[in-house]
Specification:
The protein is an alpha+beta fold. The protein has 2 domains: 129 residues, Up-down Bundle (Four Helix Bundle (Hemerythrin (Met), subunit A)), CATH 1.20.120; 98 residues, SCP2 sterol-binding domain (Nonspecific Lipid-transfer Protein, Chain A). The chain has 7 helices and 5 strands. Strands 3-2-1-4-5 form a 5-stranded mixed beta sheet. A hairpin with a 5-residue loop joins strand 1 and strand 2. Helix 1 runs antiparallel to helix 3, helix 2 runs antiparallel to helix 4 and helix 5 runs parallel beside helix 6.
Length: 242
């Protein structure tokens, strides 16, 4: 995906998020985020957008001096979110995607932030829709890109007590382009390549379902598991999602 596509996805899913939260009601629980109400989810996204538009808009090279926003009363939550979201889209749209700024990843650019915000907003839009009693998949192209982002940036952040996967895993989107092979690395992490290959186990499904399985929003029954099912389960359980 290219930068304009991320911006379009962010605009679409950020608006859809607010609509789903309004439909669910701020007091509704969020099944995908145990212990959270919709109000908590709205505030989380408000904080996330505030942080990253500050990083990009001010071209910050570190988080030093950043001040967290103050949570408003519940009756102001959605309006605060919507206003901040509009500012976030404006800041990211104005930024050169090659601009240097702080990120937690090896990619210290505004383009990384735009991609991350499109992905996180889409995932929480899905969370909000589920809270509202709906089930709308993540856009297939965006979800395939989200699988790629997960494998290259999140995969090796393993849970402290996670057992070794114990084999190679192949992921294959069935509705859009997207195939990856993950082989065990010498350092205990995974070596990711974008290719069609045979693994000890394989996960096949729509891009949305594959992404939701990786983020443990859905269980493995949502996709086809071929080969070593135990290795597939260890693979999905391996990554810390904090």
């Amino acid at each position: 995906m290219q930068h304009p596509s991320y911006l379009a996805a962010l605009a679409r899913d950020g608006a859809g998020f607010a609509d789903a939260c309004a439909s669910a009601g701020l007091g509704a629980p969020v099944p995908a985020c145990p212990g959270w109400s919709v109000a908590d989810l709205v505030w989380h996204m408000t904080e996330v957008h505030h942080f990253w538009r500050s990083i990009v808009g001010e071209q910050r090279q570190s988080t030093a001096g950043y001040v967290d926003p103050t949570r408003p009363t519940d009756d102001q939550l959605l309006s605060t979110y919507r206003a901040g979201f509009a500012d976030t889209v404006a800041v990211l749209s104005a930024a050169d995607p090659t601009q240097a700024n702080w990120t937690w990843s090896s990619d210290h650019t505004a383009g990384f932030v735009t991609r991350r915000m499109a992905q996180e907003t889409a995932m929480h839009r899905w969370d909000a829709d589920i809270a509202a009693g709906a089930s709308k998949p993540i856009d297939a192209e965006l979800a395939s890109d989200g699988v790629d982002e997960f494998l290259y940036y999140m995969l090796d952040d393993a849970l402290a007590d996670a057992p070794a996967v114990g084999g190679s895993v192949h992921l294959h989107c069935t509705d859009v382009d997207g195939e990856w092979m993950i082989r065990p690395g010498d350092d205990g992490g995974g070596v990711v390549t974008r290719e069609h290959a045979k693994g000890d186990s394989a996960l096949r499904g729509t891009a949305s379902d594959l992404l939701l399985v990786l983020w443990r929003r859905r269980d493995l029954t949502r996709v086809d598991v071929i080969g070593d099912a135990a290795a597939a389960a260890r693979f999905v359980a391996h990554t810390s999602l904090d």
